[in-house]
Write a structure and sequence with these properties.
The protein is α/β, with parallel strands linked by helices and 258 residues long. The chain has helices at residues 2-24, 33-39, 41-57, 63-75, 199-220, 238-251, and strands at 78-79, 84-85, 90-91, 98-99, 104-105, 110-111, 116-118, 130-131, 136-137, 142-144, 148-149, 154-155, 160-161, 169-172, 177-181. The structure holds coenzyme A.
């Protein structure tokens, strides 16, 4: 009786995994369930994980990790046997996906290739993301640390997300920031991520204008006169005037003058 129950549950899970591929992969529309089962690496990785996870939960040593390692070698998708995954996960293409030990995924999550649900260091305990239901994570996105991605959210391709993501939002970029929350652009002074101050660029500009002033002074040395350096505020700086004298001495007579 218990055996039939288990078989029924596994069959229902497999049906749902295949249905997830059919509904969320345009390339799988019209493809038979057997072909998806035989040829979709995301489906293979998920089935292998379900077996590895059940054995891990039952306390079986070594075997869960071996199953995960073989699955990774075949599919390019690495899922730690302890990771908790809901039903209806679809991993499209798959290669390069990493799902860490303490990651938790809700139902009907979609991951594209190259997604990392990883930790940020050598910390132990809960250190991987929690992804709630109906979340889509674009290819190459890195979600790091014990953050929570709220249900229904989308993470843009190649984003790097290290903070919690509110439900029903779209987060893009590095660092990942919300560009839509509940379908609307976020408002407020912190919402303008495009025009952030750039202190490094400011420092480089200030250095460039100073170098231009120095070049002008060095050029003036050609006519034999000492030109004190002009600082941007227009006043002569005694220390810089001394530098100007040295510049003039080192330049010497103009060789082109014969
Ligand atoms: C984020 C994503 C889900 C778009 O969701 P959406 O709700 O349709 O959002 P929009 O397309 O309206 O984009 C919202 C804003 O984010 C920007 N944006 C979208 N995706 C982005 C990304 N990956 N990186 C940076 N900015 C991005 C858009 O330019 C837009 O900016 P705007 O507000 O200045 O106009 C989608 O762009 C994405 O990255 N999907 C992943 C797809 C993928 O990995 N495919 C692989 C197939 S093999």
């Amino acid at each position: 009786m218990l055996g039939f129950g288990l078989i029924g549950r596994v069959a229902a899970e497999i049906r749902r995994d295949i249905a997830a591929a059919r509904t969320r992969d345009p390339a799988a529309r019209g493809v038979g369930w057997f072909e998806i089962l035989a040829a979709w690496p995301g489906v293979h990785a998920l089935l292998a994980h379900r077996v590895a996870h059940a054995l891990h939960e039952a306390g079986v040593p070594l075997l869960p990790r071996m199953i995960a390692a073989v699955s990774r070698a075949l599919t390019g998708i690495e899922i730690h046997p302890a990771a908790r995954i809901g039903s209806g996960l679809f991993i499209d293409h798959g290669m390069g996906v990493v799902i860490g030990e303490t990651a938790e995924l809700g139902d009907d999550v979609t991951l594209y290739q190259g997604v990392t649900l990883g930790g940020t260091g050598f910390a132990t305990g809960k250190r991987h993301p929690t992804v709630q239901d109906n979340v889509t994570i674009g290819s190459g996105a890195k979600l790091l640390g014990p953050i929570t991605v709220g249900h229904g959210s989308k993470i843009g391709a190649n984003s790097v997300v290290i903070h919690d993501v509110p439900a029903n939002s779209t987060v893009v970029g590095n660092p990942g920031h919300p560009v839509r929350v509940e379908g609307r652009r976020p408002e407020g002074p912190d919402a303008d991520w495009v025009h952030l101050p750039d202190p490094i660029a400011d420092a480089i500009k200030s250095l460039a204008s100073r170098i231009a002033a120095l070049e002008q002074t060095a050029e003036g040395a050609d006519d034999g006169n000492v030109h004190p350096l002009r600082v941007p505020d227009g006043h002569d700086d005694p220390a810089e005037t001394e530098i100007a004298h040295r510049v003039n001495r080192s330049v010497g007579p103009n060789p082109a003058g014969g």
